Amino acid sequence: MSDLITSLKDTELEWWKAEIERHRKKLISNPSHYVEKITKEKNISKKILQDDIEKTLLVLREEAWQLYLADEALFSSEIISYLFLERDLPKTILNELLQEKFFNFDLDKLSKEEIQEKVAKIVGDSTGRIFPYIYQLSLSTTNSRRSRSGKVFETLIESFFRILGYPFNTQSSIKSGHYWNLGKKVDLIVPDVEKYLQNRAKCAVVTMKTSLRERWQEVAEELQRTSVPHIYLLTLDPNISSNLVETIKRYNITLVVLKKDKEKFPDSDNVKDYETFFEKEIPHILSYW
Description:
The protein has a six-stranded mixed β-sheet with strand order 1-2-3-4-5-6, with helices on both faces. The protein is built from 13 helices and six strands. It starts with 9 loop residues before the first helix and ends with a helix. The protein is α/β, with parallel strands linked by helices. β5 (253-257), α12 and β6 form a beta-alpha-beta unit.
């Protein structure tokens, strides 16, 4: 039996990383694809958003995420199959296990349960023997999930602005010079960059983070560095403390959170729920223009 693989050489590791990314790009779509698909399937309208924007946000986010997970499962199956079929040592390991535990037996004499047991053993032994490949795949998938989770949230918020008819600029639509003046942590400008340059106090600067932890500090630092007077920080993080609310208030950051989280801070004027943000805050800003 071939020795198990305990580590990957640098050249093999680089090859594997490249193959993971190649297969991921081929089999998994951009977050915007899943958001657009589920938004169209649900026929999300302005009225639906106005009726219950928070529920719509949560439902669409979950369903878009499930579409992504289905593609991720297909991707994982394809890339592992590819590894066993195309790479010499993993292929040899699988072939030897099949020969030892499967092909040497008269399958007609084995019960269904015995065959299932042998197949399960082959799957377990083969993946265990190539674990460094599986470990690297797991790391890559974890990082991809974190990034995509944030992008799904960000894309949903952008789609809500479009459906509600609110003008805005995104990072991708901001000219590089303006972008650097505004800062790296800016996701949206309402109504647009030109208006912001005319009167920044009468515009909304928006950024989104699914979870905060210490990441709110990045927003605060960017706000100070670029002299942005105020920023809306949209999040789905339920772990928000009173200390955090008071701290970010000093930086002129307004948190936008779910209603159940807003209820924890009834007297904090720098904490808004999504309904208030979309139905009062943004229309108020746009009314100036």
